[in-house]
Design brief:
Layout: H1 7-30, H2 47-72, E1 76-87, H3 88-93, E2 101-106, E3 113-117, H4 119-129, H5 145-165, E4 174-180, E5 194-204, E6 207-216, H6 217-220, H7 241-253, E7 258-261, H8 269-273, E8 291-295, E9 298-308, E10 311-319, H9 322-328
Antiparallel strand pairs: 1-5, 2-3, 2-4, 3-6, 5-6, 7-8, 8-9, 9-10
Helix pairs in contact: 2-5
Length: about 325
C-alpha cells in the first residue's frame, strides 16, 4: 500500500518545485544571446564595410528612382531593404523562371555581377514607354527581343546611376555583357563562392517589385580597403588636376533656367476674366527701373531690358548683393 503524504510534505515538495523553476528562469535570463554562425560560409565583410555599402546603394536608389519617375511620368520610389552575405548557389536557387537578369561587367572590375529586375516591372516599363497605362502584369513571361531593346535604355541609365554612386570609392564604367531569362545559364562565380546580395524594392502605385544586385566577393575584394571606416574621407583628399577639370567642365555644361521679371501686379478674378486685346496692365515698377534676373528660383542679377538683333534682351548691370538676396528670398 502506497504511503499517503502529509500536508507538510506536500508543501515542502511544492516549495522545492517553485524554487527550481525560479532558478532555471534566472539562469536563462542571465545567459548571453546566442547567434548562429555558419563556419562553412563565414562573413567576409565587416560591419563598417556593410555600412559603407548601404550608404552607396542608398544614393543609387534615390538617383535611379528619380530617373524612373521622370521617364515613366509617375511617382516611383526605390527603397533599400537589406544587404546579405550568402553563397552564390543559394542566391541562384532563390531565382524564379523566367527571370530578368543582366550580367554587368566593367574594365575596372575583376569579374561580373548580376542586376536582377522583376519581369513584371520590366513589362510595366515597356508598356509605359510605348504609351500604355502601365498596368500591373500578373502573368510571368519572358521578354521578347523588342521588349529587351526598349528596356535596355532604362537599364543603361540605372548602371550610370550605380557608377556615380560608386565614384567616391572606385571609378568604373559599367556595361551590360549579356541578358538571361533562365538562371541556370548564368555562371559568373563558383557555387561555393560568397556573394553580397543587395535587395531593393521598387514602389509604383502601391505595388512593389524586387530589384536585386548580386556581387561575388572576388569582385568587391579589391575595393574592400576603400570601404573601411575612413572610406568617406576619400572625397576630401586632394583632387587630381584631371578630375578637377572634369568636374569644372560638368558644372559649365549644367543648364539652369534664367528669367527676367519686368514687373508684377495683382488682379482680382473679375479683372482677369474681363481682360481683352488692347488693355493695359499697370505693373509695380517703372520702365527705367532695374530688372530682377532669376536663376533657378533665386534673384542673382540686376539688368536693364532692351533689344539685340531685333530680339528682346537684357543687359546685366550688376550682381545682387548678399543683403539684397536675403531680402528677396
Amino acid at each position: 500500500m502506497s504511503k499517503i503524504l502529509t500536508q507538510e510534505e506536500i508543501d515542502a515538495l511544492l516549495k522545492n518545485v517553485a524554487g527550481g523553476e525560479a532558478m532555471e528562469a534566472a539562469t536563462t535570463a542571465g545567459e548571453r544571446p546566442i547567434h548562429l554562425y555558419d563556419f562553412k560560409h563565414p562573413d567576409r565583410i565587416s560591419k563598417d564595410q556593410l555600412r559603407a555599402l548601404r550608404t552607396i546603394h542608398d544614393g543609387f536608389a534615390r538617383t535611379f528612382g528619380t530617373y524612373l519617375s521622370g521617364t515613366l511620368r509617375t511617382l516611383v520610389d526605390i527603397n533599400l531593404l537589406s544587404i546579405d552575405q550568402a553563397a552564390y548557389s543559394e542566391y541562384m536557387l532563390s531565382l524564379s523562371v523566367p527571370s530578368c537578369l543582366y550580367i554587368v561587367s566593367s574594365n575596372q572590375l575583376k569579374g561580373s555581377f548580376i542586376l536582377e529586375v522583376s519581369p513584371q516591372f520590366s513589362l510595366l516599363v515597356v508598356d509605359r514607354l510605348l504609351g500604355g497605362l502601365g498596368t500591373r502584369q500578373d502573368a510571368l513571361r519572358e521578354l521578347t527581343i523588342i521588349e529587351q531593346t526598349i528596356l535596355r535604355r532604362v537599364i543603361d541609365s540605372g548602371l550610370s546611376a550605380l557608377s556615380d554612386a560608386w565614384r567616391s570609392v572606385q571609378s568604373m564604367s559599367l556595361y551590360v555583357e549579356s541578358y538571361e531569362a533562365n538562371p541556370q545559364f548564368v555562371q559568373i562565380a563558383p557555387a561555393s563562392e560568397s556573394a553580397v546580395v543587395i535587395s531593393c524594392e521598387i514602389v509604383v502605385r502601391d505595388f512593389t517589385y524586387p530589384l536585386n544586385l548580386c556581387f561575388p566577393y572576388f569582385v568587391l575584394e579589391p575595393m574592400m580597403n576603400n570601404l573601411s571606416t575612413g572610406w568617406s574621407n576619400i572625397s576630401t583628399d586632394n583632387i587630381r588636376p584631371e578630375e578637377r577639370n572634369e568636374l569644372i567642365d560638368r558644372v559649365r555644361l549644367s543648364k539652369l533656367p534664367i528669367r527676367a521679371q519686368l514687373g508684377s501686379t495683382v488682379l482680382n478674378m473679375h479683372e482677369y476674366l474681363t481682360l481683352k486685346l488692347g488693355d493695359v496692365v499697370m505693373l509695380d515698377q517703372r520702365t527705367d527701373d532695374p530688372v530682377k534676373v532669376w536663376v533657378d528660383k533665386k534673384v542673382k542679377f540686376w539688368a536693364e531690358p532692351g533689344h539685340s538683333k531685333h530680339q528682346q534682351a537684357i543687359r546685366i548691370t550688376r550682381v545682387i548683393s548678399s543683403q539684397e538676396e536675403i531680402v528677396h528670398e
